[in-house]
């Protein structure tokens, strides 16, 4: 794998049915070959290649190759988090399997997870790039950012998302040249500087404190914070209610018109009964055939459909 690398392997019995993602990630970071997921991570600056395979429905095998065992163990822990292998979703399924809105999906797709990022900063950075644009265009911008600012393994040719330090030092004009709007480029750089300087600790137990500081940055609103919480910090109670997929879904449910759009407050009202499971409930709701035409332009819906 990597010259002189120390290999760490772990076999995981998921706490609830799971299926590993199939296919390469749209941003080019996660690679899938022969059913084996592979990506490059950095732990305290050290590169680690992590692989995940599912030889049986109730078993996932993880391997990491890095400079030492401690780094490999941390990389595997991050991948376990990203894949949701240790999440016990039984309470959610027992409570909502006969729910009028999401019950059919809950029963048909017990393995459905909210796909996460191994590092919360990845979720924050990519949420900024996905604001108010089609998912396909956002993915193109993300791939360009990775090419210019990301880290690359010369052996595997895998690439990693840029670190907070790399984006903190980026010129907004350079990000704008990669098709990111100037306002979002400035917001991304400012957010990266907050994280790099330690003023925002995305791994701290008190998520809300970091969220408040990030919300003070122009261009970072509740949708971005909800995407960070749901996809980067494992917060199932976070629902990106302003996402186009949810606005279309609730608009249709309220009017019967597939062209209708609801208000964000109406989305939050509909999902309020799901409480601490609102984010996962949203992933199931977005599997509705009603949203087939809207998935292309909705980052949240595209992730649920994947």
Helix content: 40-55%
Spans of at least 5 consecutive residues whose pLDDT stays below 50 are: none
Alpha carbon gyration radius: 19 Å
What is the number of beta strands?
Answer: 7
H/E series? EEEEEHHHHHEEHHHHHHHHH
Mean pLDDT: 93
Strand order of the largest sheet: 1-5-4-3-2
Question: Which overall shape is indicated by the principal axes computed on the Cα atoms?
Answer: globular
Head-to-tail CA distance between termini:
29 Å
Largest sheet composition: 5 strands, antiparallel
Helix/strand-derived class? alpha+beta
What is the strand content?
5-15%
Q: State the helix count.
A: 14
Please write out the topology.
Layout: E1 6-12, E2 31-33, E3 36-43, E4 46-56, E5 59-66, H1 69-83, H2 90-96, H3 103-108, H4 120-129, H5 135-149, E6 151-152, E7 159-160, H6 164-168, H7 172-177, H8 182-196, H9 207-215, H10 222-232, H11 244-255, H12 264-271, H13 278-285, H14 299-305
Antiparallel strand pairs: 1-5, 2-3, 3-4, 4-5, 6-7
Provide structural commentary.
This protein has 306 residues and is of the alpha+beta class. It is built from 14 helices and seven strands. It has helices spanning 69-83, 90-96, 103-108, 120-129, 135-149, 164-168, 172-177, 182-196, 207-215, 222-232, 244-255, 264-271, 278-285, 299-305, and strands spanning 6-12, 31-33, 36-43, 46-56, 59-66, 151-152, 159-160. The strands form two sheets. A five-stranded antiparallel β-sheet has the order 1-5-4-3-2, covered by helices on one side. Strand 2 (31-33) and strand 3 (36-43) form a beta hairpin. Helix 4 packs antiparallel against helix 8 (182-196) and helix 4 runs antiparallel to helix 10 (222-232). The longest helix is centred in the N-terminal third of the chain and has 15 residues, at 69-83. The chain is globular and about 60 Å long. It starts with 5 loop residues before the first strand and ends with a helix. The model has no long low-confidence stretch (mean pLDDT 93).
């Amino acid at each position: 794998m990597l010259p002189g690398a120390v290999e760490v392997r772990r076999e995981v019995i998921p706490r609830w049915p799971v299926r590993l993602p199939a296919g390469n990630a749209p941003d080019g970071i996660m690679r899938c070959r022969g059913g084996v997921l592979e990506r490059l991570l950095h732990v305290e600056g050290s590169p680690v290649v992590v692989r995940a395979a599912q030889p049986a429905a109730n078993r996932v095998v993880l391997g990491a190759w890095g400079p030492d065992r401690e780094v490999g163990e941390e990389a595997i822990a991050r991948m376990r988090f990203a894949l949701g292998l240790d999440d016990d979703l039984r309470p959610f399924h027992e409570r909502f399997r006969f729910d009028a809105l999401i019950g059919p999906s809950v029963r048909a797709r017990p393995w459905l997870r909210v796909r996460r990022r191994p590092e919360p900063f990845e979720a924050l950075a990519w949420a900024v790039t996905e604001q108010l644009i089609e998912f396909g265009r956002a993915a193109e911008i993300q791939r360009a950012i990775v090419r210019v600012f990301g880290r690359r393994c010369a052996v595997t040719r895998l690439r990693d998302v840029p670190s907070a330090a790399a984006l903190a030092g980026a010129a907004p004009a350079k990000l704008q040249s990669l098709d990111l709007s100037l306002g979002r480029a400035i917001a991304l750089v400012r957010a990266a500087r907050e994280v790099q300087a330690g003023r925002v600790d995305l791994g701290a137990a008190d998520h809300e404190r970091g969220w408040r500081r990030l919300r003070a940055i122009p261009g970072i609103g509740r949708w971005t914070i909800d995407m960070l919480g749901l996809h980067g910090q494992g917060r199932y109670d976070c629902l990106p209610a302003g996402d186009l997929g949810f606005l279309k879904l609730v608009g249709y449910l309220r009017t019967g018109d597939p062209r209708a759009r609801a208000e964000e407050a109406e989305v939050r009202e509909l999902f309020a009964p799901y409480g601490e499971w609102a984010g996962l409930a949203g992933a199931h709701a977005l599997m509705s055939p009603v949203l087939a035409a809207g998935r292309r332009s909705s980052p949240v819906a595209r992730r649920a459909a994947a």
